[in-house]
Each structure stands twice: as C-alpha cells, then as structure tokens.
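I have a small job for you when you get a moment. Would you make up a two-line entry for one protein for me to read? No commentary is needed, just the two lines. Write everything out right here, beneath this request.
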Amino acid sequence: MRIPKFKSLEAMYALSSCALLEKDLSKPLGEGENLACSWLQAILSIDRNDSSNQDVLTLLLHLNEQHPHLYEWTIRACYVEPSPLSARAFKALARLFSIRDFPCDPIELLVLCLTVSHDWDLEEAALLLLKITECQYLNIRSAETGEVEANRHNDFPTTSISACRYLSKNYPQLTLQIFSEISYRLESSQASRQSSMLGSLTVWFQNIGKSSIMSLPLTY
C-alpha cells in the first residue's frame, strides 16, 4: 500500500524530534549512505501550501546545535540544490535565526544572504537575516559608538542591491573575507547563484586598494 506523501511528511516531522537520526547527523551529510540526508532532501522536495517543509529543517537545526554537519548541509543546499528545495532550505535558516541565536560564521551567512536576496521570493527573508547578522555579529558596540551603531541598524536598506552597497561601504574590512567565501562557493553553485555572487563581487571590488581594508579585521 502506497503511503500518501503528506502522511510521510508528517511521520518524518514527528521522528525529527527523536534521537533516531543522531548517528547520521554526527557525520558529514551527503557522504555515503546517510538517512538524514535522504530524508531532508525528500522533505524539502515535497510541494506544500504551508511551511511544513522548512519547519522540519528548522526544528532539526534547533535541536542539533551540537552537530554542525547539519548546518553545513543546509548552507550548501542553498547554493547547490535546485529551486524550490534551495529556497526552502534558506527559509528554514532565516526562521532559525529569527527565533534564536545560533553559532555560525557570520561571513558565510552574510554571503549567503547577499546571494539569495536576488531571488524575488527570498529577498524579504534575506534582508531580514542580513539585518539580524549585522545586529548580532557585525556591529561592535561600545559606550562611545552605541548610538551610531543603533541608528545604522535601524536604517538598514530594503533592496538587495542597496543592502550590498551599504554593507560594502560600512564594513570594507570584510572585503577579503567576502572574496574568499565567494571563491569557495562559486564553482559548485547553481548558475543563478553564481550570477548573484558575481554581482556582489563587483560591488565589494570597489574596496580593493582602500586603506581601510588594511585596518584590523573583525575576528570571530
């Protein structure tokens, strides 16, 4: 008897809160036989009229902070998987960071948001996550600059290209790290993602040679 795919999704959702996948999540997803990887791809590939797909992934990420391979798989899926699977993976990440602090590489997250923000259906979520990233990871607050940083955060841009220009202008010391992350992701990404990354590079490229880049970089 064939089980309806929506019933399968509900079963996967329930099992995702259990410890049954812990063994698979403790090793790199996508290498060899990995039940977690197969399940995630199946879940995110099912067409739904609600957000159940990405809710499963958000829940798994939330419950498995101690297993960074799951987070790494999700980031990679946003680049290499076809739409709408990649879109659902990103929405799961955006939801995760909107409800809690989560350990991450802010440069990795920054580049991902700038890349997917060119998709009209992801632009709003990407800009929100960029704003969260700036607030939680990029702003270096002090008693002297706290008011300036708060105003900067409140005036965050509302379009993908303006956000890229804003970040490039205000954080030129991140330029080389941005270049490094884009270079790492470029070759394996979908064509649309490659185009978006190259577009971001043209904006950050204007910082090359500026003396500000030679200042002490932000470290995490």
Remarks:
- Residues 104-220 form one domain.
- The CA atoms of residues 76 and 200 lie 18 Å apart.
